[in-house]
Automatic annotation (TrEMBL):
Enzyme class: hydrolase
Protein name, per record: Xaa-Pro dipeptidyl-peptidase
Record keywords, A-Z: Aminopeptidase, Hydrolase, Protease, Serine protease, Signal
Source organism per UniProt: Streptomyces spongiicola
Entry EC no(s): 3.4.14.11
Reactions accelerated catalytically: Hydrolyzes Xaa-Pro-|- bonds to release unblocked, N-terminal dipeptides from substrates including Ala-Pro-|-p-nitroanilide and (sequentially) Tyr-Pro-|-Phe-Pro-|-Gly-Pro-|-Ile
């Protein structure tokens, strides 16, 4: 087995009483690993928040677990890397909503049927021993408590504290889970406030405790739900939050469970919704106190209309992006159909609009941890980011190109922005004979919806064969590589006649090739030791590589519209069945190269089996070819 060490130094000997006051070691504007992970101080604090989401008349509290260098008890002050999560205590069996609906959909307030899956935002740490229950055993050094992830092994020796926070309604916290509600933001924010002396905290014996060892400077990071909470907290403008690293995080919960005015599930999690997720993470003691809160989620999330209501406005972090003061290092996977790429795309644009310092990594995998895919580079960039924002080191973190994009051959491209500079809009017309640069003769074409039982992957296959259940438009073989990077947009003249209100657009790369999928494969022959280990937490990890498949096509992007919301996602408009309307909607942003000789295709269907509600089959989708088009953001 090949073992590669990234350790650049061993922990320094413990300081004697007559030694100088402990201090960080900085060489070449980088913090150095001179503190002992094994000797770290373990601390548990219950922190008072500004919320009372369980309605008991007392402020909710969040439980915070901290590891910090032992030298912090001797006067060393350090910055803290926080990971707030609703998953540290595991999850519950949950019920999913039935997505095979009749014309009137699922009546409001009906409890969804029981399922055996877990929600889509579960983190890579799920399934490990419940973190909120881990305490040093008899005779066990406090610092040797195993810790999920790699921040303790890598960053604590370099002079950082690391902390976990149980989100409200989970683990050792009080309050109630609300799937992105304001109370959850305030819960995670309380950790930053406590580290800055603005919130009260108590140790396990109920004694008041402060953070005299903290500089107050804080970073938040995590994956999935854990990567959503950093953005939520940053939009409060809280003082002391200097950096965030949202990995596959949500920027607007509406766009996680809805799209274009319709109920649209995260990929692979049909029937999930805000109430299902809250029920799953609801692991606090005395759970009955939150029953009314979760029942209210079921009522207010509205699975009937799918409109952008005040319920979803509360969970939209984009509206407060201008309040973000932290440096933002965004990370997302191009094949992530759980937290779709629209989340990073719209947040990136909002950060750009408000001049927020930012960095972006866009990789080829799905909803995964990027660290083992590119371990040395990841730790290098993250180290620079934290050292710069939390310790003020002038290390060039902002001097390098801010965007890194993984290509189809798994090489990486650095660029100054995303979409790439020089990207231009190219409009292709959906003509009777395929996609073309000029509009063709207006022709009415129809397809009969079969999405209730047939997945989109089956409907897009073999575009040259006429089928009654889809409308397929393709280019001829491409004369050169074509890089689409950004948001494809549809403008379609169409009508629906039947029970399904959805129009779904699929952007397809036709051509036999070996391409990345959402998954990764662990390479057990290549273990990397990146930090100091303790028993049960080695400080080592196996590399991963992309899982690939060879296929005749790949669905590159999707976009959905509820025709009743053709004017606004906030409210429905009347629809006359069979009447044509001008429909305009966006697909998910992508960075994809259609190779020379491949064909680019757009396929229109109604029901998307794995994402939308599934109304009875038979709806007729009619499209006016020749006056309908797709606009692609093409680089170069």
């Amino acid at each position: 087995m090949l073992a590669v060490s990234l350790l650049s130094a061993l922990p320094a000997p413990v300081a004697r009483a007559d030694d100088p006051a402990p201090a960080l070691s900085v060489v070449d504007d980088r913090t150095q690993p001179v503190f002992s992970r094994a000797d770290a101080v373990h601390q548990q604090v219950d922190v008072e928040t500004e919320a009372d989401s369980d309605g008991d008349g007392r402020p909710d509290t969040v439980r915070m677990r901290i590891l910090r260098p032992r030298e912090t008890d001797a006067g060393l002050k350090v910055a803290t890397i926080v990971e707030a999560s609703p998953y540290w205590a595991g999850g519950n069996d949950v019920r999913y909503h039935d997505v095979d609906v009749e014309v009137d959909g699922l009546p409001s307030g009906v409890r969804p049927p029981r399922g055996d899956r877990v929600p889509g935002l579960v983190t890579p740490y799920e399934g490990r021993p419940a973190a909120h229950q881990r305490q040093p055993a008899a005779g066990q050094a406090a610092g040797s408590v195993p810790w999920p992830g790699y921040t303790d092994n890598y960053f604590l020796p370099r002079g950082y504290a690391v902390a976990q926070v149980d989100s409200l309604g989970t683990g050792g916290s009080t309050g109630c889970p609300t799937s992105g509600g304001r109370n959850e933001t305030l819960g995670a924010k309380a950790a930053v406030d406590w580290l800055n002396g603005r919130a009260r905290g108590w140790d396990p014996q109920g004694r008041p405790v402060g953070a005299a060892w903290s500089t107050g400077d804080t970073a938040m990071m995590g994956i999935s739900y854990n990567g959503t909470l950093p953005t939520a907290v940053a939009t409060t403008g809280v003082e002391g939050l200097k950096a965030i690293v949202p990995i596959s995080g949500i920027s607007s919960w509406y766009d996680y469970y809805r799209a274009g005015g319709g109920v649209v599930a995260p990929g692979g999690y049909q029937g999930e919704d805000a109430d299902v997720l809250a029920e799953y993470v609801h692991t606090r003691a005395d759970r009955e106190v939150c029953r009314p809160v979760i029942d209210r989620l079921t009522r207010e999330q509205d699975r009937v209309t799918g409109d952008f209501t005040p319920f979803w406005q509360e969970r939209d972090y984009l509206r407060d992006a201008g309040r973000i003061k932290a440096g933002v290092f965004l990370v997302h996977g191009g094949n992530d159909w759980n937290v779709r790429t629209g989340h990073f795309g719209q947040l990136w644009e909002a950060l750009k609009k408000h001049g927020v310092p930012r960095k972006l990594w866009l990789h080829q995998a799905g909803h995964v941890n990027p660290m083992p895919l590119r371990m040395e580079e990841w730790l290098d960039r993250l180290h620079l980011w934290f050292d710069h924002w939390l310790y003020g080191l002038d290390n060039g973190a902002l001097a390098e190109p801010p965007v890194e994009v993984e290509q189809s051959d798994f090489s990486w491209r650095r660029q100054s922005d995303w979409p790439a500079r020089g990207t231009r809009d190219v409009r292709l017309w959906l003509n009777e004979g395929g996609l073309g640069p000029l509009p063709g003769r207006p022709v009415r074409q129809t397809a009969t919806d079969r999405g209730r039982t047939v997945p989109a992957e089956d409907l897009v296959a073999d575009p040259g064969t006429a089928r009654p259940d889809r409308l397929a438009y393709t280019t001829g073989p491409l004369p050169a590589d074509l890089r689409v990077n950004g948001v494809p947009e549809l403008s379609v003249r169409a009508s629906l006649d039947g029970s399904s209100p959805y129009v779904t657009a699929l952007l397809v790369d036709y051509g036999t090739d070996t391409r990345a999928t959402a998954g990764t494969v662990t390479d057990i022959s290549r273990q990397v030791c990146y930090g100091e280990g303790v028993p049960g937490d080695t400080g080592c990890a196996y590399r991963t590589r992309h899982r690939t498949e060879t296929a005749d096509f790949k669905i590159v992007s999707r976009g959905w519209l509820d025709i009743r919301n053709r004017h606004s996602v906030e409210r429905q408009s009347r629809v006359v069945e069979g009447r044509e309307y001008r429909l305009e909607w966006a697909m998910q942003p992508q960075d994809h190269v259609f190779e020379k000789g491949h064909r680019l295709g757009v396929v229109l269907i109604s029901t998307d089996h794995d994402h939308t509600l599934r109304h009875p089959a038979g709806t007729e989708l009619a499209v006016r070819a020749g006056v309908s088009s797709v606009t692609l953001p093409v680089a170069g």
